[in-house]
Amino acid sequence: MAHVRIFKHYIHFPFIILGLLESLAFILAIFIAVPTRLAIGDIEYEYHYFEILPSAIAYAYTILICMNAMGVYQAKSKEGKTGMFVRTIVAFTIGSLIFPIFYYLASDIFGVIWRSVLLIATVYALVLVFVVRGLFYGMVDENAFKKNVLVLGAGHRAKRVLEDLRNPEDWKGFNLLGFFPYADEEIQVPNYQIVQSYSGLKDYALTHGVDEIIIALDDRRRKLPVEELMACKMEGIQILQEYVFTERETRKVSLEVISPGWFIFSEGFNRSSTWALIKRFTDILASVSLLLLAWPLMLVTAILIKLEEGWRAPLFYKQVRVGLNGNPFEVIKFRSMRVDAEKAGQAIWATKNDSRVTRVGAVIRKYRIDELPQLFNVLKGEMAFVGPRPERPVFVEKLAETIPFYNERHRVKPGLTGWAQLCFAYADSEEDSREKLRYDLYYLKNNSLLLDILIILQTVEVVIFKKGAH
């Protein structure tokens, strides 16, 4: 079991196990910290562990949410142990600052969880989390939860599977045994990845412990080995289409295989009045909360922009973007480029190290501060907190002519942050926009409250560690 699908979103199973173990460690930290504090202060206080259980659970999941926001569970595979250590420390720092808010808001519930207890608990929790993680990674083989995957086919579709999996992060859920060529299909994958077998598909699969067979034949209607696949299926081996496999592993859809029929018959793309109400409530709550926290930063930003370019220079940058169902609206941002950035009146893609960006603009773009005024677009209902990035009409018109189903991304409100923005950072070309559409369609297909929460949490990581800013 490499992945678990929760509310339509795939989550790596080992991360779930590790998260549960660490949450238990955080609860234990509170349970140990209370008697430790009483012993240090020579305080006599009668209590039962059941009384502090709500506090311990609240503390555990506050830290756990902060760790998710910092990308701790992904950091080991991306940045090694050092990156994971740094992100863990940052997560504990943020969590330790946030949790006392609960203490003041609900002191009757927290009982003996004094600030000194929280300090001791944080020390215990840090020690325990590294012990748990050390034991987990030391005792559990990284391949223990991975599935052995065999791709049936070695032609163009098989090559596309390989291209979609070029990111090493996409390989954490499976071991690729190779490509099983079939009939007279033209070989398009590297020879070293071709499986040589003289015993047939079923025998090879059983001999090598194959868990999944991925169908990637170029002409499956005439060449599909139905009897062998049925035999494999009856032996407990899963059979998947290649686009289902790549969606699960890469969290994006394949543009090459989608069609109107794919939209019609695919699981997902659910909409309901209840979900719309929940989504709107979440948007308002998140936007108001962020505005209350960020208004001092927004005030400082406004002053710095005026100081750099003069008091008569415009503070905000307003621009028409394409919104829900293709309807235009005016987005508002802090101005990060020169006033004459598009003096010829022609729309220009923003690029990395763009010379039109001001000094203040470079900083506020790096930390996404320029996006904060869009919270007012969210409150007005023109945008959502989470959704596809809103694009300019001129770009949308051009991209819709060359990229199939590009306008489908406008079936939901554009967002301040989104799945594509997290996974692919910034698009400054048609090819990049094509790739981002794959993530946008994944979001449309699998949207849920859980996915929105994960996106919001991971946006914190993007801001703090300056990922993907132009």
TrEMBL record:
Transmembrane residue ranges: 12-32, 52-73, 85-106, 112-136, 284-305
Where's it mainly located? membrane
The record's subcellular locations are: Membrane
UniProt membrane topology term? Multi-pass membrane protein
One molecular function GO term is:
phosphotransferase activity, for other substituted phosphate groups
Q: Which Pfam families match?
A: Bac_transf, CoA_binding_3
Q: Does the keyword Transferase apply?
A: yes
Keywords, A to Z?
Answer: Membrane, Transferase, Transmembrane, Transmembrane helix
Which InterPro entries does the UniProt record give? Bact_transf, EPS_sugar_tfrase, Sugar_tfrase_EpsB_2
GO CC, one annotated term: membrane
Q: Which part of the chain is the Bacterial sugar transferase domain?
A: 279-464
**Superkingdom of source:** Bacteria
Q: Which family does it belong to?
A: Belongs to the bacterial sugar transferase family.
Which NCBIfam families does the entry link to? Answer: EPS_sugtrans (TIGR03025), EpsB_2 (TIGR03013)
Output this protein's name. Lipopolysaccharide synthesis sugar transferase
